[in-house]
Every structure is written in C-alpha cells, then in structure tokens.
Amino acid sequence: MDKTRIDAITGLRGLAALLVVYGHSVDWFSLPWKVNFSGEIGVMIFFSLSGFLMAYLYLGKKFSVLSVTDYAFSRFSRIAPAYLVILLFSYFIYTGIDPNFVYGISSKNILRHILFSGNVSVFWSITPEVEFYFLFVLVWAAASRYLTRFDILGLAFLTFGGMILLSYRDVFPGTFVGAKLHYFLFGVIAGIIRSKIKAENQGRTSLIILHGLLLAAMVLMESGWIALPFSSNKEFYSSILTAVFGSFLVFGFSFPSALGGFFFENRAIVLCGECSFSIYLLHMPIIYLCHKFFPLSSSPLFQIAFLIPFVVLLLLFSWLNYQLVERPGARLIKSMGNLFKRKFIPLFPLATRAQPQPLSVESETR
What we know:
By secondary structure, the protein is mainly alpha-helical. Helix content is 69%, strand content 0%. It has helices at residues 7-28, 38-58, 65-96, 110-114, 126-149, 152-167, 181-195, 205-223, 233-238, 240-253, 258-264, 267-274, 276-293, 300-343. Helix 1 (7-28) packs parallel to helix 13 (276-293), helix 2 packs across helix 7 (181-195) and helix 13 crosses helix 14 (300-343).
C-alpha cells in the first residue's frame, strides 16, 4: 500500500465534511430531522485525521531543515489557496454587497483571519488546526531527539507538559489548540501505532467485523439511538472519550477491508474527500444564499426536493473550487517551496545533509 495515500481515509474525510453540512442544513432550513452532534462529529474526525496523518506521514522521517521546509510548504499549499480566496471573496461581499452575509469578514477582523487566527462561523476550526501544524514541528523534533535516543528525562518532561495542557483544556478558548489538543494527540498516537503495522489482507474477517462495529456506532450516535451524554457542543469537544473514539475511528478505517472499501473507497465519497476543504468552506455561503432567496415550505416533500439541487450545487461549486483554486494554488506554492530550497537552503550547508522524499499534495489531510 502507498503510504502517502489511503483512499478510505480520504473517504472518511469526505464523510466528515458531509456531516458538517448536514448539521448546519438542518439548523438553517429548520428541517424536522434530528441532529445529534452531526457537525461536532465531523469536526472531531477532521481534528483526529490531522493528528493521525501528521504522525503517519512525518514522524518516520529525519527531522532536518529540509524536511521541515517540505512539511511547511506542503501544509501551507494544502490549506492556503481555498482559504484565502474564500476569505477575500467574503470580505468583498460583506463590506460591499451584503452586510448580513454569513461570513462577517470586515476591516476589523480580516487581518486576524489572514493570519489563520479568526473565529467567524466555520473559520473557527481552522485556527486550532493551523496552530497544531506549528505544534507538530515541536512534537516531531521531540520525537527525533527523545524517542530515538531513549532520553527518558526529556520524554517525561514533554509528557508532563502535555498532561498539564490537557488538564486545563476547558479553560482555553475554543480557537486555541490547547482546547482541542486531546483530539490531535490521540490522533498522533494512532498514527504512530499505525505506521508500525503492515496493512492487513482486505478480506480478513476481523477487520470486516471491526468496520461494521464502527459504522454501526456512527449511525447510532448520529441517529440519536445512542444518547450522547453532552448538553452542549463545548462538553462534546472537551470530552476525552470523543477524542479517543475519533482517533480509533481513523485508525480502524486506515486498514483495508471489503466493508470499509465499499463505504469509503468508492469514487463518490473519495471525490468528496478530495474536495472536503472546499465543501467545508463553501457550504455556509451556499446555505445562506439558498435560505435568503429560496425560503422553504414546511412540506417535507418540498424540503427533500429542494435539498437535492442544494447538495448538487454545493458539490459542483466545491469541485470547481478544488480544480480551479486548490490544486493550481497548491502547485504554485509547492513550486515556490522548491525554488526556496534551491536558492536559500544551500546557503546553510548543515541543512542539506538530509534529503526527505517529497509528498504529493493529495496525500494530506484537510
């Protein structure tokens, strides 16, 4: 199996995006369908995936200036194009066309959002994720120094520091990585373990059973047949149990099976996974516009009939944004990264000792 690409993980990312869309659609359109933390479950998967993939893809590589440079440009190329384009369009719409636009990006907060530290609407979840990208460099450096050299004192110090942050996660603002650190760290642990295990045979019965149980758990959680013990999304996000479940969910579906492949490796859900960041960023503006210009009837049949073109419209615009903004923007930033390495890294001879293999843009998470 290609280590830089796991189709089921891409499909799972697509499901996470669709769960967020579902949760917001039910709220905005006042649909009579039960929502049991749909959006929160989707974001939980996103955070867990980030920790998992960062550890799975990078912790086995030598920590060096070159490898960190590759990592930084790969991360920035994955998130920046769609984010910045939609951010600037939102600023233009909010300040010049519609002051009620769902993304209230104004002159007062645009710089904060450009620096990936904003909190308007769904942009709030981008902030802790980008902060985790910076934190992961420290995790990577620590793993290179302490784990490979078996420095028990240094490892104990880092573990103690992590426990302190986790203990105070409830007092941190939701946009700070400390408030969501448990999702990323459990994801990192799952990624480390997964990188040490070879892929199992696709038809293995135990994996089919495991995937069946995980799918059943998600259905039961989402349907409300299993009552989740949270009275608010803050309680959901602060729970260690949801972080453990999220990381185990990603870990479990990183192994191939016929059942997992059926649900998460089919072309439709993998395509949603590839466009997941565009889906995540665009769904609220499209919901807002539909809600503003096409008020829904209370008839369930009319609502269902309306939601079909809404979903088609969302997926179409997300695919176009992925093809016309995300991919070309990522290629441009990656080429700038290669130019940077050729021009500036050689000025520091010690930085050229390690030559990490470049990763494809599509191999990384949201």
